[in-house]
Amino acid sequence: MALDGVFTAILVALGMIKLPSLFPGAEFQLSAPYAVCLAAMVGFKRYLIIGICSSIIQLLLGTHTIWNVLVAMVFRIAAGLIVTKCPVRKFSIPASGPIGTGCARFVLAVMLKVPVMPLLAAAVPGMIFTAVCASAMEPVLRRVLSKSGAQLYEKKVGEASCE
Predict the structure, then answer these.
(1) What transmembrane ranges does the database entry give (predicted)?
(2) Does domain 2-18+30-147 have CATH number 1.10.630.10?
(3) What is the average pLDDT across 61-90?
């Protein structure tokens, strides 16, 4: 339980950090690659609980709005399901972030009644950033957590996979 609190705190902190981009609306959020790695390491249910706690904290702190939470939750569900249900790391780690972002932008476009293509176009640099960073970050985080004795998600016998 304490470890999940640490994961939540890191997710909150990274969710507040946005790296600027040359294009308006295309900033990079550092929490996306971390979230993808977290889903791969702790499993979908635990990852989703950590994400919900993170969103509640960010709402209470006033650093996120309900729109930010909506986008984050769509991202978490899409990316988390891809990573946990298709654990072929070579595919799922780099693909889940961009797919999650695409799903989140689509839902946002529907909710705001705006065209989806400009939202997706602005997100492309962040999608690339997430895919590259998550692929590089996952083995490092996995090694750090395994050395610390943290209990990580392990695929159960008979569980579906994309292999």
Answers:
(1) 6-23, 35-60, 118-137
(2) no
(3) 90
Is 74:107 a contact under the CB 8 Å cutoff?
yes
Residue 140 burial (10 A CB sphere; 0-12, 13-18, 19+): exposed
Tokens of 61: 């702190």
- Each domain of the chain, given as residue ranges in start order, spans 2-18+30-147
What are the φ and ψ backbone dihedral angles of 81, each rounded to 5 degrees?
A: -65, -40
Cβ neighbours for 78, distance < 8 A, ≥ 6 positions apart = 96, 99, 100, 103, 104
**What percentage of the chain exceeds 90 in pLDDT?**
54
pLDDT for the residue 26: 64
- What is the residue type of 111? M
152: tokens are 């990580």
